[in-house]
Specification:
homodimer, mainly alpha, Arc Repressor Mutant, subunit A, Four Helix Bundle (Hemerythrin (Met), subunit A), 3-stranded antiparallel beta sheet, 4% strand, DNA-binding, WH-like_DNA-bd_sf (chains A, B), DNA binding (chains A, B)
DNA sequence: TCGCCATGAGTAACATGTTACTCCAAGTAT
DNA sequence: ATACTTGGAGTAACATGTTACTCATGGCGA
């Protein structure tokens, strides 16, 4: 009764290719700990674990390598890359530069249906928080940001941010619980939602900025905890994220 | 006497792979008109034109497809994609969001050597203008922006912009001459350079903004000229690039 | 015990084989 | 002439074969 390919067709009309399914499989493997960052793997092994040939697996990994999620080592294998403090900071800087204006535009462009959809995701986040289901929470968080970006109307921005989120996901996952701040992250979304419901771009932008900065600091803390890359993080942050000097 | 692979080793120590060389070959083919946008090509033909097997060619094209330069059509072939007004506008919006802050940071961080390097590229642009060598001009223009981005210290930003430039290159090339504005584009770089020499971030940011907006409008004009996508460009521009509303 | 070198297992990169699909164009019925 | 079928050429996606490389391991001499 159950279909062989789970969430198959998207809505693009075509069934997904093996390459695409492999990409999802690798992402899932990273999420649930099957693929450990730093460990050395090979296309051969992964291919017959997934029951497909090496070609689509290789294609999938090459695409993921493009975004920095994995790295190939010639004649050795490939590794899942755990982003360091430097990379995380860079990513936060990009997200600030793109998502803050996106939130502003979204506040102006949102239709009633859009607002309702955002509200839905926000409430789903609420449910996930009380249920303590971090996986579900991350999913709704992603959808919230995704919806907001689509609203802003720039498909390039959406794609870029989606890729960056991929690279950071494995830092945030199963670690936020540690600092019991799932609730905090959830609450930071409320001012964003409110500002968009009220159509106030500057407020929405400011709220998004606060949210991203706070999330960024959390991720950096987490990254510092697991690797010994002890904390010159503050210098990095000021250097790459710190607000551009306004005066001279 | 002449090496088989021209500008081989980069400086990464390793010789470039066939895939990488193919990527460069495709880019070059697009630049010099061997590969016509819109036309249907196949991996088979391209592979034996380049004298390699289908694998590296396919890998190369998949990577280029990731950035939107080419598009595959299942069982049909692939096309070089000419970006439309929509895509161009989106790209300009991203560049504004990322390169303006980058210019600000660069103004603060630049060392004497950095300033000299920028000056060099600027003067090389000058030479290209008087020589009427558009290809060389584009190259130095790219290097100028590339140096500036590296200065800003965010490798992700550098990579993103580099990819976007790729997608737009085939619109700008051999068309700027039409509006005889090579000189204008050159002159717009002076205020940027000056501001960085003087270490003034806000001035550098403003100059960069003016430059990108002006370049963007030129590209849009050009795109509108060759495709019949007649000009609702202005609405697009205001929608995606227009400064975010400052007040409420 | 310690350093050196041969050897072989395992791999990414590259090459070639196979399959199921799309489309065009030439035929055939109407 | 026009619509409708049909065959075949050409293709991306997927599978498998080959090569040249990296590195761990174990023997061998000091």
């Amino acid at each position: 009764m159950s279909e062989p390919s789970a969430e198959a067709a998207d809505r693009s009309g075509r069934p997904p290719t093996l390459t695409e399914r492999t990409i999802e499989a690798v992402r899932e493997g990273i999420r649930n700990g099957t693929l450990v960052p730093g460990e050395l793997y090979s296309v051969y092994r992964l291919a017959d674990e997934l029951g497909v040939s090496r070609s689509p697996v290789r294609d999938a990994l090459l695409r993921l390598a493009e975004t920095g999620m994995v790295a190939f080592e010639r004649n050795r294998g490939f590794r899942v890359v755990l982003p360091g403090a430097r990379e995380l900071t860079e990513i936060i800087a990009v997200r600030l530069a793109l998502e803050v204006p996106a939130a502003q535009r979204a506040a102006v462009r949102a239709t009633a249906a859009d607002r309702a959809a955002l509200q839905n995701e926000y409430e789903a986040m609420q449910v996930s928080v009380t249920a303590g289901d971090e996986t579900a929470f991350m999913m709704h968080d992603q959808r919230f940001h995704g919806l907001l970006l689509e609203l802003a109307g720039n498909a390039h921005v959406t794609r870029i941010i989606e890729n960056l989120r991929d690279a950071t996901r494995l830092v945030g996952t199963s670690t936020i619980r540690t600092s019991r701040s799932l609730e905090d992250v959830y609450q930071e979304h409320l001012p964003i939602l409110d500002a968009i419901q009220q159509g106030s771009p500057s407020t929405a932008g400011a709220a998004m900025r606060r949210h991203l900065e706070s999330t960024g600091r959390l991720l950096l803390q987490e990254a510092a905890r697991k690797s010994d890359t002890n904390l010159k993080s503050n210098a990095l942050w000021n250097d790459l994220v710190g607000h551009p000097p306004v005066g001279e």
